[in-house]
Each structure stands twice: as structure tokens, then as C-alpha cells.
# Entry
Amino acid sequence: MVGFDHRSWSGLTDEQRKRIGTRALTASGLGLVGGNALIGIETFLMVQLALNGGQFSRMLALDTPVLTAMVLALLVGAVLNVVFGLVALRPHVNWFLSGAPPEPGRVAAIQKIPIRQVSGTMLAWAISLGLYLVFALALGRGVREFVVVAGAFSLAAVASGCMTYLFAERAARPLSVMALSDQATVDVKYSVRARLLAVWLVSSAVPMAGLLGVNIGRWIELLPPTVGKVDWVSVVVALIGLAGGTRIVLLVGGTLVDPLDELSDAMTDVHHGDLDVRVPVYDNSELGVLQHGFNQMVAGLAERERVRDLFARHVGSTVAEHALARGDEMSGGTTPSVGVLFVDITGSTMIGATLDPEAVAGLLNRFFTIVAEVVDAHSGFINKFEGDAALAIFGAPVALDDAAAAALAASRDLADRLREELPISWGIGVSHGTVFAGDIGAQTRYEYTVIGDPVNESARLSELAKDAKVPVVASGDAVQVAGDEAQNWVRRGAYRLRGRPDETELYLPASVVAEIDERPATSLTVGELVRGFTRLPFQRAAARRRVRG
# Structure
């Protein structure tokens, strides 16, 4: 509307406000002047032809009985009509230009602008009729002419009132947008049915009443009979009906189509994902209720999307989608084969002792951001952030054909990212196997999680990686089912992890093994690790843990 969408109205500059306010006054003034001028000309034609028997040759004769009185009355009425309309509109335009918030009563006053301008129009036509009576009596005219003119002016006032309402409603739209500011519009001031009634009045009732009046006037000899073969009075009345009907249909069509077009465009924006779109609320009919309702609906959708995004940030997008699709019931759980990745920072206690809390928080946030980005890139989800560690699952709740390969590839990428972007040490453990995946907790509070030996194994492998000072250690079970990804891994023996009865085959990324091979062993731990993962370094690592404990 006038070149601005709803999101622009609150930020209008003074120049823009001035331009819009001037446009509103101009539109109202031109509409009142043009509409009433046309109706005045049509009324003059109809009255003159009715009084002279349909003779066009006598239309402007100086001795035409009502010519002078009628012209003066119409001119004064048109001027008053414009004055009344602009007087009703001007205070609200001044408020609009000021940019001040709407004070109490402003909204109701702006909503009444159209009906007040209609009242001014009716008053102007009543004054015109009174002036005609004064002029006619001064010119010595009789009652017959006054009755004819009074009937014609009454019909003209009805048509003019309908046109004035529609022009005023359109001109006041910018004021309504600023005053309403999307307030709840549940009280329908003027219904769509009233606009359709205006169409019927202008296009049907007024011309039909004019024809009936002319024929009744001839029947009771108030009007002279038709002179000539063609009843020009009826022809002119019919043409007036066609012209008036065209004008009113265009105006009413605009009041109905404009808000519907705006709603349609806004719905298209929502369909494309724009939940910030709003439509301006300016209509006093059921369409205004629809405009406000649409804005409420989109605001609700935006809030739902915000909550959904917040929910996804807390539990992960895949779990969030799974939960929303399932509803509010706890799931029975499944037992899928998944890849499990566990990553833990080395020396987090020392980090906390040497850095201030804000720096520690920033470091952890950056660490977890990298973890989340890598896991998401490989179709996994973060099941837990625990202190300085994270547990990622591949293959649940969304199944993956290559869950183990995804976990292994993610671990290599994660090690590369962490080495490049953070000045810390860490250990990553990767495992694979069957787990329980589902909701755990009470009916009123539960969470989606995975339980099983692969989860425990990945945590132990992470400990081993930290103690052995290598970035990643994977289990043989994961590498053996990883397909093409397995070629990126090298076996380095077997070791019985803490709390497990059997030995676990241990694999390192081939790039890590090559990197270690290129430099001399600087410690017993690294040297023995590369030569086969013998038990000694891990026994020593276990001894160190016991001493620390």
C-alpha cells in the first residue's frame, strides 16, 4: 500500500510521512470534488430533461426555470462537501505527520472518518437543497420544480454518500495502519455487506428510483410528457446508472481486492519461509478481522518455529523432529546398530585453573561448536554435552546405511578441525554396535538417549587416546564394517580396556600413523604405541590414573 509494506511503517521518515499525508488529503479532495462534480452534472441533466420533456435543445436556455438556482446550489454544495471532508481528515493527518503514538480515542476517531465524511456529504446536499429553495423562491419558481429537484437531490445525495464513503475509506488507510498498529480488530464497524449495499444503491436502486419518479411524475402531470420519439430522460437515467455502477464497482472492488491481494502476497511469503511478514491492518470490515487474524497466525507460526529451534538446540534437530513426529508419548525404543563417537578434552582441570571463567566458557563453546558442525555434516546427532566431553550417535534416531563409516569419517574430520582451530589436546574414541535408542525417564520428564556397550567402549577409547597422546582411537568392530572408509585406518594391536573382559582391537587413522612414523619416538608411550600397541604404555597410563586418584 502506497509503496510500503507493514515492516516499513514504523520507520517512516518525516519526508515519507509528509508525502503520504499529502497523498491522503489529495486523494480525498480529488475524490470528493470529482465524484460530486460528476453526480452534480448527472443530476442537472436529469432534472433539466425531466422538466422540459426531454428536449436537449433547451438544456442551457437562460429562461430554463431552475437553471440559475440549481447551478448555484450545486456549486455551493460541492464546495461544502470538500470542506467538510477535509476538515474531518485534517486533524488526523496532522497527528500522522507528528509520528506520535495514538492517544486514547484516536483509533475510534480514525475509524469513523468515512462515516463522518458521509454525514458531511449529506449535510452539503441538504444545504444545497435549501439554497435551491431560497433561489427558486427569489426567482418566482413554483412548488412543482422544487418537488422535482428535491427528489433528484435526494437520489444524488444517496449516490454521493456511497462514493464519499469509499473514497474516504481509501484515503484514510495510512492513518488506520498507524493508529491500529495491528490491534485486535474484533468489532466490525462497517461490514462487507454494507459495501455491497452501496453497490446496489448506486447501480440499481438510485437509477430505478429515478425512472419510477419520472414516470410517476408524468402520470400525475407533475412533469411534462416526452417530446419526440426517444424518451431521453430514460436514456440519460440509464446512462447515469451505468456510469455510477462502473464507478462504485471499481471503488468497492478496490476495497475488497486490495486487502485480499496483500494477504495473498503475504501468504506466498510465508510459504517461502518468511515468518516476519505482516499485512497492514486498516479495514473496518470483516477483512480487518482477517488481516489481524493473519498477523496473529504468522506470529504464532514464528513463535512455534522459535520454540522448535530452541528445542532442537537443546536436544538436536534429528531428535527434535523425531519427538515432534511421535507426539507426546514416550517411545518404546529401538535396538539399531550405530556408530558412536566420544570426544573429551585433555587437562580440563588445568585449563580451568589457568584461565578465567569467561575464557573457559568461550573455549568450551568453540569446542562444542566444532563438534556439532562436524557431527551434523556426517548425519549424526549430539546426544549429550557433558562438562568438557560430547557423545555423538550415528544411525539413531535416523537410520544410516553406513553408520560406522560416518562415525569414523567424522572422527578424522573432527581431529583435523580441532588441531587447526583450538590450542588444546583431546581424545576421540569411536565404536560400533547394537544399542537401545529411545526415551528414558518418567512420563512427565524424559529424554532421548542411547544405552549399550558401544557407548561405554567409545568413552574408554577416548581415555586411551588421551593417555597414549593420539587424537583418535577406533575399535576393530567399527572399522571392520566401515566399507571404503576402512582403508583410512591402520590396526595397531589389541588392548583390554578398563572395565571390559575382552581385548579390543585398536585402530588409528592412517594419516596419524604416517605422521608419527616420520618423526623419532620421543617417549616410551608413543614409541611403543606405534610399534604395536603393546600393553606397557597403557599399563603405565593406568598406573598414572591410580596415582592421580
